[in-house]
Hints:
The chain crosses the membrane at residues 26-45. The protein is of the alpha/beta class.
Amino acid sequence: xxxxxxxxxxxxxxxxPRRIGLRRRLLRGLLICMVAWTVLEVLYxxxxxxxxxxxxxxxxxxxxxxxxxxxxWNNEAILRSHWNDAVIELxxxxxxxxxFVSVFESGSWDDTKxxxxxxxxxxxxxxxxxxxxxxxxTHQDEISAPPGEGWIDTARHQKELRRISYLAxxxxxxxxxxxxxxxxxxxxxxxxxxxxxxFTVDDxxxxxxxxxxxxxxxCSLDFSNPPLYYDTFALRDASGDEHxxxxxPYFRSATSRHALYAMSPVPVKSCWNGMxxxxxxxxxxxxxxxxxxxxxxxxxxxxxxxxxxxIHADNPLSQAMGVYLNPRVRVGYNPAAYAAVHPTGAWLSxxxxxxxLWENRLRRWMTTPSLKQLVVRRRISRWQDDHAGxxxxxxxxxxxxMQVLADNGWAHV
Length: 413
């Protein structure tokens, strides 16, 4: 009788051998299905990514007139090695009469001014209209000025100049010629914002053709240290969330991820990422669209948002026409970064796709942006209680940071 009792107890504790075998077969079947599904998904996505970059010849340039806006600080190396030549080539391909170049340089301590004087001379020989402003005002001059709008009380018991207020002011300087040109009846189709990046004319042409040329904004992907993408401050997915991971496939939003897998224009709420094309109309409307920072009173709550994100929140075309990131257009902040994201073979390896898909899933399943968003929301709510009638339409741009200008760049406080 003892063995029978022992066997019965074992069944009660662990289940019958038949049930144990059934569970094992189910687990094995699920594992096989998961592996098969992963293999098929990876092969499909890798094929889409690999074939998307195959281009037989240079795409035909758009018959568009471009207002090119850019600002520079200590960029001598990239200007002389790549940027100047790319802008000159752009003017030749689109035609000198179809391009205006607006550059603002701000107190560089290298020979950025000399490099831009060389660009100015080259554009002059081509007959390209331009406004290249070289400013002697340094960061130290800016932070030594009497406080005013754009300044904030910091935890260091000082009143300091906000980085974003400063950058918004400089970006708006690059747009100033639009006012005079508009009064002269000189019009453009697109504003092309260029950071200090390595890019080609083909990159620009591809960017302009994003989503068939219909968009409120079209952005490239930018890299400084691949495979990490660079502009985490301004990029928000279709749901308005920050990246789930800084490497491909980046996004939490299914809408953004699925478009990225297909190497199609990726719907996002905001992007900048090194190179941006936007229709000219909002910039010459009344009132004109311009860059801005959040209010000083809201920033005092230890919140900040990129001027390059807020402009999409303010752009009246964003809702109707959409903001897109074009994954086929990849630029770099140095030659090595550009080369890394333009390899001879596939941009992404099978191994990378496999591991990245599962990393993205696990990050989405195990983390949430809700806590960060709750902090931002509560601070905005308290600010609105103290500032009746004021609103911030770019809530999705805001993060729990305070950034101020420094003599050698900027700092978190």
